[in-house]
Amino acid sequence: YDLRNEDLKDLQELGQGNGGSVKKVEHIPTGTIMAKKIVLIDAKPSVRKQILRELHIMHECNSRYIVSFYGAYLADPNICICMEVMDKGSLDGIYKKIGAIDIDIVGQVALAVLEGLTYLYDVHRIIHRDIKPSNMLCNSKGEIKICDFGVSGELINSIADTFVGTSTYMSPERIQGAQYTVKSDVWSLGISLIELALGRFPFAESEADDSDLSDLEGTLSPARPGSMGSIAALSLPPRPPKSASSKKDKRKSKGVSLQGGGMTMSILELLQHIVNEPAPKLTEGRFPVMAESFIDCCLLKDPDARKTPKELLDYPWIEQAKSSTIDIEAWTQTF
Ligand code: ATP
Ligand code: MG
């Protein structure tokens, strides 16, 4: 496809994230229906072109566990990324609609994500870097696929500069400034699976309620790879001037969504919690032991002890998911 903005007709909004919005569009010349993600990027033209070049390898990412890529183009000041539409949306949207997801379906999610991560790393040496339920998509054919992986170093840098949200799925070693590895994705997978199985973000239950600290959310801008140092080294930037853009306010309100039962945990508290406290677990007794111990394995705080996606594909709960006859297509008809 030779994609141009004027050839794409908006059909419907599919969702909004921190960095931009996603619309269902029709590519008029071919009649192809696509999901167009608009990413606002504050970068020089040379950097934008570099990002486009880097996105090109997504054309080579062909796997049934990866959302297909149609192409990307510049539409000042945005970059538009066109991909396959997944008509049942993301797993965060699904659990927010239907509640906690059945553990056997969660097993299928774990299997698909591990297969997708293994493909990306083994074939392309790509680390995903943003595993979370909103980047796990599902369609009415019963397919589960991952999207929004970090193919472009420049794109990661450009977005990271203006970004807070994702840090909540970040592994303890990443919070402390270590490089990303495939094992950081495994941590994020473990957090995501608990979230799907419980129907809520696992860190939401906090004793802490410090509204002063939660004020900082709009001003912390951590995620540039490698730049964060350690929590202890995080210095608190001055408050932004009152004129801080409404975009920032939107991000902030998303950051504060770490609430549950009237308790609030600020981003800073949450990051400290991830580093210092025991990892979350599936509630004991409510789920199969195999699922519990798989998730414990994903959430080993020491990255050296944590397994890679490929190793986890041999884990008993995943082997069981491979031979399961569960009908995901039928499940998607229930919502
Ligand atoms: P963040 O900005 O923190 O990464 P996000 O992943 O929700 O959050 P986007 O990647 O911009 O943000 O996606 C916004 C929403 O659009 C998603 O939550 C998902 O529901 C929907 N979406 C994204 N890609 C597709 C797609 N290919 N098909 C269908 N829906 C999609
Ligand atoms: Mg996304």
Automatic annotation (TrEMBL):
<feature type="domain" description="Protein kinase">
    <location>
        <begin position="8"/>
        <end position="318"/>
    </location>
</feature>
<comment type="similarity">
    <text>Belongs to the protein kinase superfamily. STE Ser/Thr protein kinase family. MAP kinase kinase subfamily.</text>
</comment>
<keyword id="KW-0067">ATP-binding</keyword>
<keyword id="KW-0808">Transferase</keyword>
<keyword id="KW-0547">Nucleotide-binding</keyword>
<dbReference type="GO" id="GO:0000165">
    <property type="term" value="P:MAPK cascade"/>
</dbReference>
<dbReference type="GO" id="GO:0004674">
    <property type="term" value="F:protein serine/threonine kinase activity"/>
</dbReference>
<dbReference type="GO" id="GO:0004712">
    <property type="term" value="F:protein serine/threonine/tyrosine kinase activity"/>
</dbReference>
<keyword id="KW-0723">Serine/threonine-protein kinase</keyword>
<feature type="region of interest" description="Disordered">
    <location>
        <begin position="210"/>
        <end position="260"/>
    </location>
</feature>
<dbReference type="GO" id="GO:0005524">
    <property type="term" value="F:ATP binding"/>
</dbReference>
<feature type="binding site">
    <location>
        <position position="37"/>
    </location>
    <ligand>
        <name>ATP</name>
    </ligand>
</feature>
<keyword id="KW-0418">Kinase</keyword>
<protein>
    <submittedName>
        <fullName>Pkinase-domain-containing protein</fullName>
    </submittedName>
</protein>
